Amino acid sequence: MAGFTDAEGVKRQLYLEDLAVGDRFTSAEHALDAQQIIDFGTQFDPQPFHIDAEAAKATFFQGLAASGWHTASITMKLLVTSCVPLADGIIGSGGEIQWPKPTRPGDLLRVEAEVLEIVPSRSQPTRGMVSMRCETRNQHGDVLQRFSPKLVVSRRPA
Amino acid sequence: MAGFTDAEGVKRQLYLEDLAVGDRFTSAEHALDAQQIIDFGTQFDPQPFHIDAEAAKATFFQGLAASGWHTASITMKLLVTSCVPLADGIIGSGGEIQWPKPTRPGDLLRVEAEVLEIVPSRSQPTRGMVSMRCETRNQHGDVLQRFSPKLVVSRRPA
Q1: What are the residue ranges in chain A where pLDDT is below 70?
Q2: What Å distances lie between residue A28 and A1, A11, A82, A130, B142, CA to CA?
Q3: Could you give the ipTM of this predicted complex?
């Protein structure tokens, strides 16, 4: 149902049993440009520093920067399409999110994810909770976002 | 620069000095439909439960549900355009986000925000950090998202 086909053409679908603490995943890259930043900002975060490169110069960000929710949304796209191939999808109840540095036009985003904890559910024998750390970096290695979600992950069907 | 014009046509722009712990704000409403959910999901969270109402029935969500990042992005739009009129904009470094219930087609979203803590910066005399609690609810009062951001808020210019 979910998961994805990797660069070698292999369909990848992981269940709870396939994960171990310390497992690491790296996504493909997303090339961000000013127009994407402005389009997202116009729809969801219409503030000068997200929608107007000229007006952005006089703001806290001193230039155009992506909405944090845009960085988060691109991160999710990378997780789903090329990073963590969970068989029943990436389903999170939430977590802590941080944006240590602004995301800028020209940034090439990729996500690195690591399994921190795996807790089989006592009440739901078909699944468990998996804690991960997801870092979104640009081509310079700068960490633009840290997100620590708790995911609902299915066991392999009997 | 930022802030917004309220329903009575009054331009509202708040600085750090204008905020007090316990201050509450309520946004306008956003009417969500299936097409918006599918459009956002297709672009940023292409999983069956976000992009295909029929396929979604056999998933964890048992029907079409919005990406959590879509709920977060709509929340930001409501905060910026009708909820918390900060003079230099709503600038957050991050926070804890939770999605207790799925956001569904037909939901009418609104945001309630409350000031939890105000900490003037020692190193930056022109601003401070403000902790808030932002709850996103639907027309039934269900809490769909809780977000507790720390915001950078400017003092009134001398």
Answers
A1: 1
A2: 21, 16, 6, 22, 37
A3: 0.96
